[in-house]
Amino acid sequence: MEHLRIITKNHTNPAYGGALVGARTVAQRMGCTLDHRAPEMADSPEQQSALIDQAIVDRPDAIILLPAHASAINDAIARVNAADIPLVLFVSEPTAGRWVGFIGSDDTRMAAALAHAVLPRLRPDAKVAIIEGHPDSITTPQRRRGFEQALAQYADMQLVDVVSGYYQHAPGREAALTLLSRHARLDAILSANDLMAMGALEAFAQTGHRVPMVSINGTPDAVAAVRAGTLAATASFNTHRFGCLAVEMALRHLRGERVTRRIDLASDIIDAGNAAEWDRPYEQRVCPDWDQVVASEAGSQIA
User: Fold this and answer.
1) Residue 296: predicted pLDDT
2) CB atoms within 10 A of CB 208
3) 226 close to 234: Cβ distance less than 8 angstroms
4) How many CB atoms lie within 10 A of CB 210?
5) pLDDT for 175-219, tens place per residue?
6) Contact indicator for 127, 154 with CB cutoff of 8 Å
């Protein structure tokens, strides 16, 4: 029986909890064991590197990794490669190293599509702000780029501010409070993840403001907020499916099968029209069929 180790960036983001649910579902179905590690200091590349080094000592059959930084864990990844432990990545890719395959989505395209879910509803001269993610996260500049690309298509709209919420709840609340204190008029907020958006909703309740907002991940809390009308939309950056597919990729590779080197899942926009279909805990969400996913990835490379 194979043993896998999954290493994420933190213990706090519910989207990563969704990834673990999916990973454990497939591990049980395919007959392997799985354990999880994450830095105690959220998103710390130093602590994540130490966890990677401990995994090398422990010698799991494969490591599944959500990288905390684009380059600061490259040396640790090189040590995994030197130890000849198969590595599968999900959510984002660092700048160096070798891995069996990657599962994620196009963050820039997803963020742009999400912004278009709210921007057409605004006044033509709307003032818009962004709550972006952790400064060291690989996805932060990609999602900001998508938001800005969408805004550029509306000639009279203004991006009036960008504040980091560090992809966390409390910093997301503080980011929203900062925006509300700086701007007497704010017509929309584009939040780079749901956890920050949940903090921003607390800021709205605290101050009595209500600002149209969208966010990313499709977590159960965000879907509930969409249904309640407090969040305009969320994008299904589907970490549950990432977890499912990452475990299946690792096991198929270990069992001698040629696997897809890259899977970029399409993102759905979850709004009032379809939120009921998504309104379920991760434990009730269904893992995708591997063969169907691979068949839909016509341009993927096979290793």
Assistant:
1) 84
2) 7
3) yes
4) 11
5) 999 999 999 999 999 999 999 999 999 999 999 999 999 999 999
6) no
Distance of CA 181 to the CA centre of its chain: 29
Strand partners, 144: none
**pTM of the entire predicted model:** 0.93
| Residues 133, 70: Cα–Cα separation, whole Å | 14
On the CB side of 280, CA atoms within 13 Å amount to 10
From the centroid of its chain, how far is CA 275? 19
Q: Count CB neighbours of 264 within 10 A.
A: 14
| Closest CA relative to residue 294, chosen from 267, 264, 256 | 264
Low-confidence ranges of the chain (pLDDT < 70): 297-303
Distance CA 245, CA 241 (A): 6
Contacts of 127 (CB under 8 A, 6+ apart): 157, 158, 160, 183, 185, 186, 187
Query: Cα-Cα-Cα-Cα dihedral of 98, 99, 100, 101, to 10°?
Result: -120
Q: What residue type is 198 in one-letter code?
A: M
Identify the CA nearest to 176 among candidates 129, 216, 112.
129
pLDDT at residue 57 in the model: 98
Report the relative pairing of strands 269-270 and 233-235 from DSSP bridges.
antiparallel
Quote the CA–CA distance of 58 and 2 in Å, as a whole number. 13
Q: What residues pair up with 263 in beta bridges, in sequence order? A: 103
Residues with Cβ < 8 Å from 27, sequence gap 6 or more?
4, 33, 34, 247
Q: Retrieve residue 126's tokens.
A: 């709307």
The DSSP letter of residue 129 is E
- Give me the amino acid identity at 97: G
- Whether 130 contacts 189, CB under 8 Å: yes
Three-state DSSP at 39 gives coil
Query: Please, are residues 143 and 111 in contact by the beta-carbon 8 Å criterion?
Result: yes
CA 229 to CA 197: how far, in whole Å? Answer: 13
Residues 250 and 206: their CA atoms lie apart, in Å, by 46
Task: Copy the structure tokens of residue 87.
Answer: 């590595």
